Each structure stands twice: as structure tokens, then as C-alpha cells.
Amino acid sequence: MRTVLLRLLGALPALAGVILVTFLLTRVLPGDTASYFAGPTASAESIAQIRAELGLDRPLPEQFFRYVTALAQGDLGMSLTTGQPVLKDLTARLPASVELTLAALLLAMSIAIPLGILAAVKQGSWADHLCRIVVTAGVSLPVFFTGLLLVYVFYFILGWSPAPLGRLDAFASAPPTVTGLYLVDSLLAGDMETFRASLAQMALPVATLGLFALAPIARISRGSMLAVLSADFVRTARASGLSPRYVILTYAFRNAMLPVLTTLGMVFSFLLGANVLVEKVFAWPGVGSYAVEALIASDFAPVQGFVLTMAILYVLLNLAIDLLYGLVDPRARMDA
Amino acid sequence: MSAAQTTTATRPREAGAAWRHARHVITGNPVTALAFALFFLLLLCAVLGPALVPYDPLASDTANALQAPSWAHPFGTDQLGRDILSRVVVATRLDMTVAIASVVLVFALGGLAGVAAGYFGGWTDRVVGRIADTIMAFPLFVLAMGIVAALGNTVTNIVIATAIVNFPLYARLARAEARVRREAGFVQAARLTGNGEWRILLTQILPNILPIMAVQVSLTMGYAILNAAGLSFIGLGVRPPMPEWGIMVAEGASFIVSGEWWVALFPGLALMLAVFCFNLLGDGLRDIVDPQRRG
Hey, which residues 285-314 in chain A have their CB within 8 Å of chain B? Predict the structure, then answer.
């Protein structure tokens, strides 16, 4: 329990840094925020008035204090395009992004970890070559380009997948909201038809994101498995006459997963970014496409809200990985 | 002064050996040779692009809009009848400039900050480390989006955002490399002969870690290209009529669902090839720099 508390405290500087940087980003807006809000025809007095209203005439530390208090109350400003509070928009759209990202991560892990391990155990085999191809392709392929290629092949040529337009096609209705994740909600409601429809819509974006996350996970799995396999304790286990299967699955596998867990932090950084691009390609109604729409319309409050939300989410994810690491590796618990 | 003179005196022989070694690596590994060939092709397109192409990349010809690839238009034409081959080739210059500029910028800033942090330690180290940690606390592409949104939607700001996002990578690498050399024999010799700390940093440590940094440059070039193209794909930086790979893929995206694959495919392929080239080049350069393979 104490270690958990310590880790939580350890995440505070990162959180403070994130809030400070987002604040600075709001204050270095091109030109004058007040005259932007006032419009092109505003007079000098009305600009000054708006500046006073927004608190922009105060010294920076005071502005920062106001910003933090507003944040603490969940006030991220208003979106000019939707006319809604940014926080409300973001919470409404977050489940769509979460569902996409989690599904992609699960897909990537369920393929990449066995592939990486197989590549390490059987060096020079087809699995090793496949692993190398996947890793090289994964770092070279722009994620938005892979998405478009998949759409062309599976929607236009083969006709297997539905049109890449959001979470459900126009004829289906969303399941009653419990978690906001359509797959989970439709299962809870026992609505297999909606489940199948949303699974079909998800298949391509999830495959696109998954392919992207596959490369780093496979590379680390292979590398760390290779390192573990040449360790002394594995040699001892083998010399003691344990079956290769047992040695690999119980002795080597568990140790090899530690670096993989650490890499997940980096993978999340990539995924949360790539998410924006994939959402744009598939017209996915998540937070990423919300931010992109706002960006195009020069509507800055949603963009800043989005950056802040993603950063906080990412800090929390790293914290979770840290805690998980302590759970898996008793040595890490001792250090803390 | 004497230390500097000895290094210059021995440099020609070293350079000759390095060149022989580079040739050995290139001829020894066909993949690296391919990467170098690709690199020169990219360079050629970037420098001579507008002179090489058969059509004006901006000239629209609506009578020939959305033509499939043919002899007249090997990569087809887009929705305004512009020749895609010409646009892809001409775009090389802009994409390369953005990537190279951002890498040079981060190389200078991150490299210097990292070397200073590793060499001086103390508060310099803490400040640089804190800045790097704060940047790393963001998902990188999202931070780049935020920076471009805040600084203004221009190509220059895409360069700056890409550089900032890569800062921790460079700073950390340079710091680690400078740290292990802090008390090395040649540094102590330079100190004994009366060189100032900054002078040692710039004339002894920095040249020493340059090869390792160069590998990093090549490896991050690929990421820089992807990052910049990703930003322009979502509509940041480059304005529409201008040919750029990311925005061309974005323009082609709406035609994919109706089967006009060539509009998005060719700029996407160019992008992929460029990234692939720099990743391979990075691996090849690592072989050149890595002393284990030398000799």
C-alpha cells in the first residue's frame, strides 16, 4: 500500500509539468486571444473589455492560478463549433476512442507476443523472418496510409467490411449506454445484432492501429526472450532435465515479459497519437477526430482540452504500468 | 591548442580509413547499398524535382480529372487533373526540407543541452532532465498537434513541433555519451593543458560523440517525416494546392471508397519508401560507427 502511494506521488511532477505546458500553450496563441474572441471589427475598448473579462490583463502567475482552479472544477472552456462545454464533448466521445485503442492493443499483444517469442525460440525460422518483416514494415508504414489501403482492399474490392463511416452504420441503433463501449454494452443488453454490426465497423480501424502497435511489441518480445534464454537460470533449468516447453513457458516467459511491460508505455504514446489519424481515416466519432475538426475551425479550447486529457490519460497509464510492474516483479517492489 | 592540432593532423588518415570502412560496409551489405541508392534518388528528386517532372504540379486540367495510370500519366491524375507523378516528385523537396530542418534543429538544441547536462552534471543536468521528462509525459504526436495549434498553422511551426517532440531522445543520448567521456583520458589531458570547460566540451567531447548522434539522426529522420506527414494529413501546416505527401494522401482518402486508388497510393508509397530508406540507412550507419564491426 505504501509503495502504491509513493508511486502516486511520483506521478505528480509529471502531472504538474503537463498542466504547466498546456497552460503555456494556451498563452502563446498566435496574436491576441482577446481580439480573436472579439472578432475582426471590434474596437480597442471592446477588446480591452474582453481582455479584462478573460483575465488576460492580469500577471501570468495569477492567470495560471485561475487556470488551475478552473481545471479543478472541470472547466476546460467552451467549444465554439459545438457550443458545448469542452469537458462534456470530451466525455461523450472518449468511450469511442478508448474502445478503439484498447481493442487495438489487445489485438497487437495477442499477435506480437507469441510471434516475438516464437522468433526468439526458433531463430532463423519462418517466424523469425515474419517477425523481422513485421517490425520493419511497422516502423515504415504511415498509419493513415495503412488504414486507406485496408479500406480499399476490404471495402472496395472484396466488399467484406462496411463503409468506413463511424461506429455503427446508419440503420443500426446504439446499445443502451453502460460503459460507452459498444461491444461491451451490446453484450450486456444481449443484442447480438448490434454486437456484430459494431464489430464489423471496428475491424478495420482496430487492425490498422493494431498493425502499428505490433512492431514495437514484437521487437521487444523477441529481444528480451533472446536475452532471457541465454541467462544462467534457464540453462540450469534445462540441465535439470525440464521439458523445453516448461522451461520456455514458466521460466523464460515470465521474465521476458518485464521489458515488454515497460515498452507498453511507449506503445501507448504512439497509440494515442496514431489514434487521431485512424479516427480521421475511418470517421470514427472519438476525441481525436473532435480535436482535428476543432483544429481546422481554429477553435482552440477543444484542442487544448484534448491535449490535456490525452496527457493526463498517458500519465495515468504509465502509473498503472508502474504499479503492474511492481506486482509482476517482486524486485521492483523492494526498491520502491 | 596542441590537442586540437594533433586531431587535425591525424584526421586525413582517419578519414581515409573511415571512407574505406564505409565502402566495405556498403558493398558488404546489399540492403545498405539499396538504402544509399534510395537516398540518392530522394536527394535527386529534392534538388532537381521541378526540372525533372513532365508536367506542372499545379496545373489543373479538369478534362482529364481522375484518370487511371497510363503512359501519359504513369501515376494517374487527381480530381483536378493534375499529374500525380509530377506532384509526388516535386513534393520530395518540401517533405525532405521539413524533416531535415527539424532534425538539424533538434540535433543542435537537444545535442548541446544533452552534452552540457552530461558533462557538467548538477543543476544543468536537472533542468535538462526535467524538460525532457515533461515532454515525455505527453503522447508525442498529440503534443506536436498542440504546439502547432498554439504557435500557428504554418510549415515552420511543424518543423519546430517535430523538433521539440524529438528533444528528449537527443538530449538523453547525448547526455549518456558525454557522461561516460567526462573523465576520459583525452578530456583530462585537454584539461591539464589548460583548456576551459566549454572549450573541452565543444572541441573534445562533441566531436567524439558526433558519429553516435549521426546514427540517431538517420533513425529519427524516418520518424520526423512520418510526424510531419501525419500533421499535414490532419490539415496542419501545408496548404492544399502545394504538393506534399501527407496532404496528397489526405486528398486521395475520399477517392479510395469509390475505387480511385492511385490518388492516395503513390504519395503514400513515396512516404513509405522515404521512411524505409532512412531506417535502413540508420542501421547501415550504425554498422559503420560500431567499432565491433571495424577491422
Answer: 291-292, 295-296, 300, 303-304, 306-307, 310-311, 314
